[in-house]
Amino acid sequence: MAECHRFRQLCQQLWEVNEEISQLRPMEEAAPSAQKKTAEAIQKEVAREVNRLLRLTFQDRRQAGSWDLEAVEMAIRSAMHQARAAALSQLLQFPPPAVEQRHFPCPCGHQARYQELRSKTLLTAVGKVEVSRPYFLCPHCHCGQFPDDVELDINKKESSPGVRPMQAVVGQEAPFDRGRQTAETARQSGSDDQSGGARRHRYGS
Length: 205
What we know:
The chain is an alpha+beta fold. It has two domains: 101 residues, no CATH class; 86 residues, no CATH class. It has eight helices and four strands, in the order ααααββββαααα.
């Protein structure tokens, strides 16, 4: 019973992801319907991870006669990273601008026009996510721009403000490309050792 109680406490951490992520974008930026849709998508992702872990954990207990609590803890941590990445991706799906907002000042002095939504992959502190945002093109100088990228400090960058300090520290002791890979590996694995990774594999993480 004690292990069951501990496991349910760990599962509760997944649900708390919603509270953490909800602070990333000011509420006034999205319409109530868009907020509800995003919240529902996040909740479904978290619920999917919780149900998957519960199913696999109880299946493992039936087969082995006991729980490997360490493996469960490692799986929960991995699932939390996946849920956070999915939640952040949902928050970074920007809608097309309203008709009256489909022009944006261009540095050349003219007005750039909205063209379409474009996506890019971004490395963040919770993993790789997809960002979809409006793209504007100036018909005079043919200069394209992503205003949301500038606001989020990811313009012409492949990593988020949260992960760049990690890359900078690692990059001081390694070439940039290898340093970036090392920072990503460290983010994904935390302090896991090989045995922890093997145990997580049992739960499909």
